[in-house]
Write a structure and sequence with these properties.
heterodimer, A: OB fold (Dihydrolipoamide Acetyltransferase, E2P), 2 domains, 6-stranded antiparallel sheet, 24% helix, 35% strand, elongated, B: mainly alpha, MetI-like fold, 12 helices, globular
Chain lengths: 352, 290
């Protein structure tokens, strides 16, 4: 059990900066998710923690020890790989037992511990098989069992669910969450899937271009995004970003069409962010403004209405029983409690 | 002309070529192995003796057993040394290894040389008067300063092994680099994180996954070592005495120099036996099912 501390961690390959002076503190027993698009440096950060990649600059601390010069084997971490990294020539039992064997665990202890880990991931009936005979989901469980068979200081998980099909991913996500709350081990989890990040994390670090954009609880990054990137990256459908200006405390779109009270000083250029769920859909004439429907989508659990608002398109979430046709006029109203203003040139949040 | 006839007509040239260059010589050599078969004695090529030639080799020819022994030791040594050294080099040169780039290109050079040429050049290198290796070894290991490499039976044998290992390492290294590249990187990284030392990662994870390629390398090299001829012919010509006389050299000598074609053919057929086993094993590994 230990915290992980990164101090000004940088990784460069030639001119390419993968991770740029990152500092991060993961507290003991915390589940921290590194979230970001591919190439943002999240996996590199994790691999540096594991010792599979050498930092160009900066320090990595696990517990009260600086581990920069330690080999992976000496860092006492367990890692789950995206492609599982199972040993194809060993049985599932031997795969799970491997971390115990190389660490010289007495053989009398190995058997019960492997069985226990296999039970935790519901794999007991496959112990004699080889990885090849298992499905993707089962292989994922083996990788997980191999990580939890001993109690490392830190779990590192590199997109562990990304190779599973959509349905299995949801099931495994819940199992992973259950397991992580049960084991209570410091965990760093890398993903590009914001739902995984939202559901699993105690805290999420949203990364872009090797820099953490925002670090906070899932609630914070969803409800209080620090900048345009975080606002646009988190949430599905993505947050609506509308270009416009502030005139006399009102937001006016670039087309000059509509006004929503937002407060604050006058500004020539701002971006207004509003989530689809924060747009109330009503019959024409009953909202702030009437707009035509560009596309109407029924997802079963809700309806998504893409509307043409001046020159821009905006997505609103409607009631699941709402039925409209393309080109129908509807009224929409923005929830003034949940509007976000951003500076389009810097991307940073304008707080009023 | 019917399609059926045409079909056979089209493959006929190939069949004729294979028959003339492979099948017929094989059958003819098998036939000769049962004859007196002396080039100096007209008619002896049709004079049948049954298994006498084979029995003669087994019971009355110490030179035959000597060449079997030489070939065995030579094969074991060259296969062992080449494989181990090539594996070591491959580990250093593989992606993620310590050395790379231009070295790989340079590596192929020794393999590009014909075995006969290697034989000649090694003979020069170990010449007691102007040989480079002779001089270098003399400086590095003073007790070896005054030895005549190719005159001493053991040392001559060592030179033969050295030349062969030198010539074969590059090719096998390249094959093994390819093999190493196909070992999934994440299994190696998983083992590192699981707590394995460099040696254990190699032993537990890399080597087992490399085993099929390694098996092919070992079998292939064994086949080539067993039938080594040209290099030895140029380097020591089987000498001093018969200290480096391999089976193929022994066959050549009996057939071509002494004109005992029948006897040479029977020994050649004896050599076929281990070859068949190795070829079978090779085919099994190369065409193995997943």
């Amino acid at each position: 059990m230990a915290e992980v501390i990164l101090k000004n961690l940088t990784k460069q390959w030639g001119d390419f900066v993968a991770v740029d002076g990152q500092s991060l503190e993961v507290s003991d027993k915390e589940f921290l998710v590194l979230l970001g698009p591919s190439g943002c440096g999240k996996t590199t950060t994790m691999r540096m923690i594991a010792g599979l990649e050498e930092p160009t600059e900066g320090e990595i601390w696990i517990g009260d020890r600086m581990v920069n010069d330690d080999l992976p084997k000496d860092r006492d971490v367990a890692m789950v790989f995206q492609n599982y990294g199972l040993y194809p020539h060993m049985t599932i039992f031997d795969n799970i037992a491997y971390p115990l064997r190389v660490r010289g665990t007495p053989s009398s202890e190995i058997e019960p511990r492997v069985r226990k880990a296999a039970e935790q991931v519901e794999l007991t009936q496959f112990l004699d098989r080889r990885p090849k005979a298992l499905s993707g989901g089962q292989r994922q469980r083996v990788a997980l069992a191999r990580a939890i068979v001993r109690t490392p200081k830190v779990f590192l998980m590199d997109e562990p669910l990304s190779n599973l099909d959509a349905k299995l991913r949801v099931t495994m996500r819940a199992e992973l969450k259950h397991l992580s709350r049960e084991l209570k081990v410091t965990t760093v989890y890398v993903t590009h899937d914001q739902i995984e990040a939202m559901t699993l994390a105690d805290r999420v670090a949203v990364m872009k271009d090797g820099v953490i954009q925002q670090l906070g609880s899932p609630d914070e990054i969803y409800n209080d995004p620090a900048n345009l990137f975080v606002a646009g990256f988190i949430g599905s459908p993505a947050m609506n970003l509308i270009n416009g200006s502030i005139q006399g405390g009102q937001f006016v779109t670039t087309g000059g069409t509509q006004l929503v009270p937002v407060g604050g000083d006058d500004r020539k250029e701002v971006v207004l962010g509003v989530r689809a769920d924060d747009i109330r859909v009503s019959e024409a004439g009953q909202g702030n403004i009437d707009v035509p429907i560009y596309a109407f989508e029924n997802t079963g659990e809700a309806t998504l209405l893409t509307v043409q608002w001046g020159r821009q398109r905006v997505i609103a979430k409607g009631d699941r029983y709402l039925r409209k046709e393309q080109d129908d006029m509807i009224g929409i109203a923005l929830n003034p409690e949940h509007l976000y203003l951003f500076d389009p040139s810097t991307g940073s949040r304008i707080r009023t | 002309m019917r399609d059926n006839t045409l079909k056979y007509l089209l493959v006929l040239p190939a069949i004729v070529v294979v028959f003339a260059t492979a099948i017929w010589p094989l059958i003819e050599s098998l036939r000769l192995s049962f004859t007196v078969g002396r080039l100096s004695r007209p008619g002896s090529l049709e004079q049948y003796l049954g298994f006498e030639n084979y029995i003669w080799a087994f019971l009355y020819e110490p030179a035959f057993w000597n060449s079997v022994w030489v070939t065995t030791i030579y094969t074991v040594l060259t296969v062992g040394l080449t494989t181990v050294l090539a594996l070591g080099l491959a580990l250093l040169l593989a992606p993620g290894g310590r050395f790379r780039s231009g070295v790989q290109t340079l590596l192929i050079l020794p393999f590009a040389m014909s075995p006969a040429l290697i034989g000649v050049s090694f003979r020069f290198m170990f010449n007691p008067e102007f040989g480079l290796f002779d001089a270098v070894f003399g400086v590095l290991i003073p007790p070896l300063a005054d030895v005549s490499w190719l005159v001493d039976p053991v040392l001559a044998f060592a030179v033969c092994v050295m030349a062969d290992v030198w010539g074969w390492i590059p090719f096998l290294t390249l094959v093994l680099i390819g093999g190493l590249a196909s070992v999934p990187q994440d299994t190696i990284e998983a083992a590192q994180v699981d707590g394995a030392s460099g040696w254990r990662v190699f032993r537990d994870v890399t080597l087992p996954q490399l085993a099929p390629v390694l098996a092919v390398v070992i079998i292939l090299k064994s086949i080539f070592s067993l039938k080594t001829f040209d290099q030895i012919f140029m380097l020591t010509n089987g000498g001093p005495g018969t200290a480096t006389q391999t089976l193929s050299h022994y066959i050549y000598f009996n057939g071509m120099k002494y004109g005992q074609i029948g006897y040479a053919a029977s020994v050649a057929w004896l050599m076929v036996i281990p070859m068949i086993f190795l070829t079978y094993a090779y085919a099994k590994f190369v065409f193995r099912k997943e």
